[in-house]
Amino acid sequence: MSKLHFTTKHANEATVQRNWYVVDGTNQTVGRISSKIAAVLRGKNKASYTPHVDCGDYVIVINSEKVVFTGNKSEDKVYITFSGYPGGQKQETAKTLLKRRPEAVLERAIKGMLPKNRLGRKMFNKLFVYTGPQHPHSAQQPKELKF
Prior knowledge:
The chain has a domain at about 20-70 and about 100-145: CATH 3.90.1180.10. It starts with 19 loop residues before the first strand and ends with a strand. With about 150 residues, it is α/β, with parallel strands linked by helices. It has helices at about 30-40, 75, 95-100, 100-110, 120-125, and strands spanning about 20-25, 60, 80, 90-95, 125-130, 145.
């Protein structure tokens, strides 16, 4: 009786196939779209996902100013920054941050869902967020990613 041996194929930098995707943020909920984008950046949508390898794809987000918050989060959610100096703590509601820097809302949400190490920073560099429907990555021929 012969035994069948199946070996698991682990991804590495030489074998990873990276694709480009474009996501439209129009009328999308911030948390729901962010979690799905974070999964694509990590590579969890692929069969060859390997936790210790950056096997994710590139993601372009357009119309980031048109994302929405559910409930009262636009007034209640507070983003805090601290410079490290006494009196250097600043607070800003989601509504004002969305008006002032719409890209920052999605970037902060997605960054918080990635690993907090050098691998997570490498994954975050494959995210491109833009206001408006235009982006400068048309040469990469990104495919549309629907959620």
